[in-house]
Amino acid sequence: MYDNEFANEYGVAPIAPLTMQETNYHESGNALAANSEARAVSEVKAQVIMARQYPRNVLTAHDRIMQECQRPSLAEKAVYSFPRGRETVSGPSIRLAEVLARNWGNCTFGYEVLDRKESLNDRTPGSSIIRAYAWDMETNTYISRQFEVKHWRQTQKGGYALKEDRDIYELEANMASRRMRACILQMIPGDITQNAVNACRMTEASGLSDKMKNPRERENLIAKTLQLYEKMGVKLEDLEDMLKTKKDDWKADHMLKLKEAMNAIRDNVQTIGDFFPRLSTFEKSDKISKDQTQTLMAEAKKTGKQSEISDELRKRGIAKFADVTADQYEEILAFVKSFADSTAEMLTAPVEA
What span, in angstroms and rounded, lies between the C-alpha atoms of 96 and 198? Predict the structure, then answer.
């Protein structure tokens, strides 16, 4: 009577003891996880030790980068540009950022998916939490960006949720590349980056100039460029309107603008609708509020690096904080704060020699 009177109807039955086979399985799994973690830690320690024993030679690294920038195959994909008001904003693409990091040496970069949520239905997309990073192992400076990506693809006929693993992976990699690029560029000295951009533009301009002088090569070059844009739905009339010049009058400078615009679209720096309003599939986001603008200004002031932040924002096509859109606010806020965190965000664990 006592047990029945005070019985808990929500009680959970005690867990049955594990069998010997299950116990061995769990112990084996823990051992594998521990070994994997220990191996990863050992690899990181080895990389840091090597970086400190063999520090980079800045002049040699700069020379290697300049030599890479003479390759036409790199130069044609190395720089993006787009008009912003009366100015033209340009900067290094993810391909050039990767070359900079590889030749700078003693550093690593990449991205990792921290969490992934599956979609509930065709109209409710899943999402991924991703962290992009760049780590200078010689100075122990770690820069990262964490962000969320919705598994959604927008088209001119509407949008739909992504469910295939391949589509989701490609979306994650595509969206992570821009943040990864930002991390790398914050790690590499600005003058090194600017020299590389100038060298790549010179290489590409020289090659285009030679091709445009030859009638046959000029015709082939324009035809291939038109084909690339046609795959995105861009017509010849759109390109002529953007360049404000008819195709028969296109010169090397016009072809350079078209190539760098293509790089901006591929690197997700700008959307195709930013260049060709007729193809825009997204409504323009509202600008942030005055309070949000003041928050960004206050955070920038705390870092003491307003000039550097302003330069980096211009590369993204943002002339001032008031131009930040509502959907960019969280990303830009984290970006500004990272200038203060970058000097303090060091790995504190001692490295054993």
Answer: 12
* Beta pairing partners, 160: 153
Six-digit token string for 11: 């009680």
* 3-class DSSP state of 6: coil
The phi, psi pair for 259, rounded to 5°, reads -65, -45
Of 150, 106, 112, the C-alpha closest to 132 is 112
Rounded Cα–Cα distance for residues 331 and 68 (Å): 32
3-state SS, 152-176, equals EEEECCEEEECCCHHHHHHHHHHHH
- Taking only Cα atoms into account, the Rg of the chain, rounded to an integer number of angstroms, comes to 26
Is 0.90 surpassed by the pTM of this model? no
Tokens of 185: 């560029």
In which order are the strands placed within the sheet that holds 127-136?
107-117, 127-136, 141-150
* Burial of 56 (C-beta count, 10 Å sphere; 0-12/13-18/19+): middle
Pairing of strands 127-136, 141-150: antiparallel
Tokens in use for 286?
Answer: 């509202």
pLDDT digits (tens, 9 = 90+) for 98-127: 999 999 999 999 999 999 988 776 667 889
Of 317, 313, 278, the C-alpha closest to 299 is 313
Q: Which residues contact 310 (CB under 8 A, 6 or more apart)?
A: none
Give the tokens for residue 124: 């409710």
46, 68, 69, 76 from 61: Cα distances, Å: 22, 11, 13, 22
Residues in the chain, pLDDT under 70: 1-29, 121-123, 155-158, 281-287, 315-317, 326-327, 341-353
Q: What is the pLDDT of residues 160-186, one digit of tens each?
A: 788 888 999 999 998 999 899 999 999
Domain ranges, ordered by start, for the chain: 23-51, 57-282, 286-353
Token duo for residue 228: 């690339």
Residue 303: what residue type? T
Q: For residue 295, with 0-12 CB atoms within 10 Å meaning exposed, 13-18 middle and 19 or more buried, which class applies?
A: middle
